[in-house]
Amino acid sequence: MSRRQMVRPGGRSARVQEAVHAAVRELLAEAGRDALTVPMVAQRAGVTPSTVYRRWGDLRELLSDVAVERLRPDAAPQDLGGLRGDLTAWAEQFLDEMASPAGRAYVRDALLGDPDGGNAGRCSAYAAEQVDTVLARARGRGEPAPGVEEVMDRVVAPLMYRVLFRPAGLDGAYARRLVAGLLDG
Predict the structure, then answer these.
(1) What is the pTM of this model?
(2) How far apart are CA 180 and CA 106, in angstroms?
(3) Segments in the chain below pLDDT 50
(4) Domains recognised in the chain with CATH numbers
């Protein structure tokens, strides 16, 4: 089990995690990624470097852990009253967030410091939970809706591929076409 997957109880452990995460975010904004070091983070967080190394292993794993937390959605998807509108709005927002310079950096960090794939799984679960919310709402209104995995395969996966490997010309129209292809096909 990697350090990042350990259950982090409240109390001191939670305070250390929050202090270290906050230090990383502040230092990234102030000094940039290339200048960041574990001793800088530890000093800013008020912990020893050994605490950071013991908990996260190295800077790459720490950046990955911070990125995964930053990629966690902070609100439920919009409810516009219908599956097409809800899923389209969610896909456009997802694309906008992931394709932004900050989003792309977080995705890269989340994957680079993830030797066992746990962070990738967490990020995927965040998207799947959001999609499930949209689909459950639609079913609750009596609308037919595809399954979560179908949306992940036909909307989320192509969006992420383009964000990571072919971002040129990527815009909301692409997200709208993917949703339309899913719902109309």
Answers:
(1) 0.82
(2) 28
(3) 1-8
(4) 3-57 (1.10.10.60), 73-184 (1.10.357.10)
